[in-house]
Amino acid sequence: MESKCVKQLLGQKPKANLGFYPTPFYRLENLSKKLGINLFIKREDFSGQSLFGGNKIRKLEYLIGDAKEQGAEYIFTFGATQSNHAMQTVEACRKEGLTPILYLVAYVEPDEDDLRSNLLLDKILGAEVHVILKNPGESDAEVDARSVQLAREHMKQLTKEGHKCYEIPMGGANLIGSAGFIDGFVELAEQAAAVGQNFDYLVHATGSGGTMAGLVAGKKLLKHPMRVLSFDVIGHDASYLENSAALANESLEWLGVDERISAEDFEHDNDYYLPGYEMPSDAGNDAIRLLAREEGLFLDPVYSGKAFAGMLDYIKKGIIPQKSSVIFLHTGGATALFAEKEILGDLLEK
User: Fold this and answer.
1) Phi, psi (5° rounding) for residue 252?
2) What is the percent of the chain with per-residue pLDDT over 70, rounded to a whole number?
3) Are residues 103 and 180 in the same domain?
């Protein structure tokens, strides 16, 4: 399918005007020379209306558009206390006249007397924030489920009072949100064509899976030869790719196209997220320092730093061969550099 046809299908869906597109796309000259590859960067961190944009804005354009179409007043969403998605959702709600309510899990417990980073921004933006502390012995999956249960009880009460609520899942990872990155892949493919470059790889961080699902669905629709390499920052079991394929297919069905995705369409690496979500890695922090000192650009220790570290290791091992042409998708999140020290680790020690 041609890109103009995909854009026509997307153009039929409700959409809020939240981002500034296309986002910048350019070559990293110093690192290209140092690494022996042709390295470009796509700046999704420049997508939002504030200084603190990121890849979730592209999803939220469609999600908030759908919420407004349904007459929603309240927007509920989820994440960690330093969630980029949650903060960007609050920004979007404020612009569009909606009321944001957040249910955030404290993987790293915040200091209420010293709020930082995205949680600080949530408060400045006036969001209603519910911080969910983990119970002893409670798994991440269990506390995530409990936060959703609490939010849905809250929504039920507001609905009884005559209010219209709209739920956005963690990371905006549903069929509507993921369609935003079908849109994003089309934009990227057009930018790549405009510089006359045939790219071999697109590298990005994946968490909730919505961005990955949209990118792979977009690649499939355009029959684009570029490989999408997805570096996991959470650590998922074998069901992750099946679930991501189902998500991509729901987005494709929503657009009214017959193309379908399977788990085999994903190139997903689960080896670079340790020691865990919102827990810094030595390689990730090395990657942050490298990009900062070679190009003057900032990654974050939760998402983009670990994905960039994975890419560097692939280059070192020859999995990404010398002279390859590579795009790194910068998904934002550099506000994490101002988060709790447990998230930063030894970043300042070298």
Assistant:
1) -65, -40
2) 100
3) no
Counting the structural domains of the chain, the total is: 2
- Output the pLDDT for position 228: 98
Partners of 203 in beta bridges = 229, 328
Within-domain flag for 231: yes
| Residue 350, in any domain of the structure | no
Residue 130: its H or E element: strand 128-132
Q: Are residues 220 and 298 in the same domain?
A: yes
Higher pLDDT, 48 or 280: 280
Does the pLDDT value for residue 350 go beyond 80? Answer: no
Count of H helices and E strands in the chain?
Answer: 12, 10
What are the residue numbers of the active site? Answer: 83
Q: Look up the domain containing 254 and give its range.
A: 3-54+175-344
Q: Residues near 71 by Cβ (< 8 Å), separated by ≥ 6?
A: 164
Tell me, yes or no, whether 179 and 238 share the same domain.
yes
Q: Where are the alpha helices (DSSP H) in the chain?
A: 3-10, 29-35, 56-69, 84-96, 117-124, 140-160, 175-194, 210-222, 239-255, 282-295, 304-317, 341-344
Question: pTM score > 0.85 for this model?
Answer: yes
Q: What is the CATH number of the domain that holds 17?
A: 3.40.50.1100
